[in-house]
Amino acid sequence: MPRFYCPLPLLAGATVDLPETVAHHVHVLRLQPGDPLTLFNGDGHAYQAALVAQDKRRASARVQAVLAADLELPYAITIAQALPEASKMDWIVEKAVELGVAAIVPLAAQRCVVRLSAERAEKKMLHWQGIIVAAAEQCGRNRLTRLAPPAAFQDWTNQHDLHRRILLSPRASQSLSSWAKHQPPQAISLMIGPEGGFTEQEEEIALARGALALGMGTRILRTETAALAAVAGLNALWQN
Questions:
Q1: What is the pLDDT of residues 166-195, one digit of tens each?
Q2: Would you say domain 77-237 falls under CATH 3.90.1200.10?
Q3: Alpha-carbon distances, residue 75 vs 71, 85, 166, 203, 234 (angstroms)
């Protein structure tokens, strides 16, 4: 059944005008009035609906029932990802959503090749938000991964929160898997370096702010692999 993100109040029995982007998808899929749809608006529920009317730019649907299906992880994982080159961030965002990541923070680290101006950052945010929506529609999540504005590495490390911060580093003496085996599932933030990794100075700053340095094994992973491998490993160890 087609699934669409509809950022509107959804109540059983109500008829809603679908966003223009959704109406376009409905038209492309050649759905007809009466065809079933699944809608979600980010509140954790899915909503069974039926298409009422559609044309190239407009579509409406009648909400029939609430489907209580919250597929979120019982622990919140944040990925603080130093900005990689080219389209690697697109891949990271998409797969992070599929793996259940709660939030993504793009970081500007010393070795980042990509530097975002305010205008370019705004465009990238809109682009990544679209990827988050599409990935949530595909994988069945009913909440959207939160996307934070790009932050300077030191600004973000100076912030205080209740999450355990884990710096993934090839110089760490303990592995993420050995640490996780002896820890209860919990909210964490994974800090991932760019191509070339975080500098020693950045690692020292993060550790001084309370981060825990952990490794990912004997091999050096690419920046677009590290976070996804870490999340998948944690989900396996914490049985999600």
A1: 999 999 999 999 999 999 999 999 999 999
A2: no
A3: 12, 29, 15, 25, 10
Higher-confidence position of 42 and 70: 42
How many C-beta neighbours within 10 Å does residue 223 have?
23
For domain 3-67, give the CATH number.
2.40.240.20
Question: How many Cβ atoms sit within 10 Å of the Cβ of residue 158?
Answer: 11
CA dist 115 and 109 (Å) reads 10
82: its two tokens = 């130093």
Q: Where are the domains of the chain?
A: 3-67, 77-237
Is residue 7 classed as helix, strand or coil in its secondary structure? coil
Could you report how far apart the first and last alpha carbons of the chain are, in Å?
25
HSE-up of residue 209 (Cα within 13 Å, Cβ side)? 22
Q: CB-hemisphere CA count at 13 Å for 11?
A: 3
Say if residues 83 and 114 touch (Cβ distance below 8 Å).
Answer: yes
User: pTM of this prediction?
Assistant: 0.93
Residue type present at position 10: L
